């Protein structure tokens, strides 16, 4: 069964505009939610089991229940549309093609959280999308769904779109808040958490675009029904942006009980690997999650079928599993060089480190330089051990998880493909010389 909640009407002509969206059932969840109390909405979101789609998978209802509510102090909802993780482009798809889904989700979520001002913080490179969002906001306003006294309920809400300047670290929620305040996007020390002191030192909820866009469906079908779609603690549906060596790159809405094998090989999804090449490895959750070789991707180390959900992908821990993360699914065929690929990622994380924490600022540079040396055929066996040592001194030792994001790909590459690193030590030139995959072109 393939349930569609987010992309149901994606192929309807004109769905980007208010009238067509409304004619296809749009904003009926707002109509319904405004007749409920904020507490009732919170209970539905909790019952749905929705987990944050930004990467960490934290339960959304629980996050909302942590929001402090001191008397006379404003609260904020900030939608994280930074989406800078290589391989991830599903939020862009939602905002570009069905922007009212997000606006509808923001209205319901803001009403539930008691915020009168909400922000969408969007990565600078998505230069054309703020116009689409602002148009949708204006249309919602013209139709009485935003502004003062929404639908005569006495509830007021304004949504503002803020463009980032193109820094990956600004996707981390506290760096995002700093940037939104007009400062350099350096992550903050936690605690205090944003739920207590966030934007302008006021209680704030930061949620991913897809998370908030899922809220209208929860209100429409009820939290209990939403929870029935999925498996275990992976409820609802998930957007996956698939790229790399596959026949049909793109954004797919999947059920969590879909096997990884079916996702890669069936015509409905990725359509297999071009030119009949063999699957070598995959990074299923955006560039920062551990790479898994084909033999551990389709089945776990215990021979169980692997499914596209939070629990199944992480079976075996980092020794033999990985993470669903943000759902940026990158496929590598047999021609791809894992050393070159890991070097490309290391260069990215080194470039994007904000520089606050020494292990990340210095360590990411070391990772990149050692990987480059090995890739260029100038490495030694000791360099592989040094790489392992450096990554282990970054993980868990920084203010924000960008350090982990830089360390995990290197650790997993050495863990599963040490022989390929050794091959590079003994062979001066990388035979694959395949530059194509390294760009993760967003399609
Ligand atoms: C370096 C870094 C980059 C991140 N980038 C994003 C991003 O682009 N979008 C996003 O939603 N979350 C991103 N996150 C996670 C956020 O900090 C935060 O957990 C998320 O926005 C919470 O939303 P959710 O609960 O709806 O997933 C990033 C985290 C880190 C450490």
Can you lay out the helices and strands and say which pair or pack?
Layout: H1 18-23, H2 28-33, H3 38-48, H4 60-65, E1 76-81, H5 90-97, H6 99-113, E2 117-122, H7 129-142, E3 158-163, H8 173-180, E4 204-208, H9 209-221, H10 223-228, E5 230-231, E6 234-235, E7 237-244, E8 250-255, H11 260-265, E9 279-283, E10 292-293, H12 294-297, H13 310-313, H14 317-320, E11 328-333, H15 338-352, H16 358-375, H17 381-392, H18 402-426
Parallel strand pairs: 1-2, 1-4, 2-3, 7-11
Antiparallel strand pairs: 5-6, 7-8, 9-10, 9-11
Helix pairs in contact: 3-6, 5-6, 6-9, 15-16, 15-18, 16-17, 16-18, 17-18
This protein binds flavin mononucleotide.
Distance between the termini: 26 Å
Radius of gyration: 22 Å
Please name the fourth-level CATH homologous superfamily of the largest domain: NADH-ubiquinone oxidoreductase 51kDa subunit
Average of the residue pLDDT scores? 95
**Largest β sheet strand count, sense and barrel closure:** 5 strands, mixed
Entry keywords:
443 residues; alpha/beta; five-stranded mixed beta sheet; four-stranded parallel beta sheet; 11 strands; binds flavin mononucleotide
Structural write-up:
This protein is an alpha/beta fold and 443 residues long. It folds into three domains: 18-228, Rossmann fold (3-Layer(aba) Sandwich), CATH 3.40.50; 234-333, Ubiquitin-like (UB roll) (Roll), CATH 3.10.20; 338-439, NADH-ubiquinone oxidoreductase 51kDa subunit, iron-sulphur binding domain (de novo design (two linked rop proteins)). It is 41% helix and 12% strand. It has 18 helices and eleven strands. The strands form three sheets. The protein has a five-stranded mixed β-sheet. A four-stranded parallel β-sheet has the order 3-2-1-4, with helices on both faces. It is globular and about 75 Å long. Bound molecules: flavin mononucleotide. It catalyses: a quinone + NADH + 5 H(+)(in) = a quinol + NAD(+) + 4 H(+)(out).
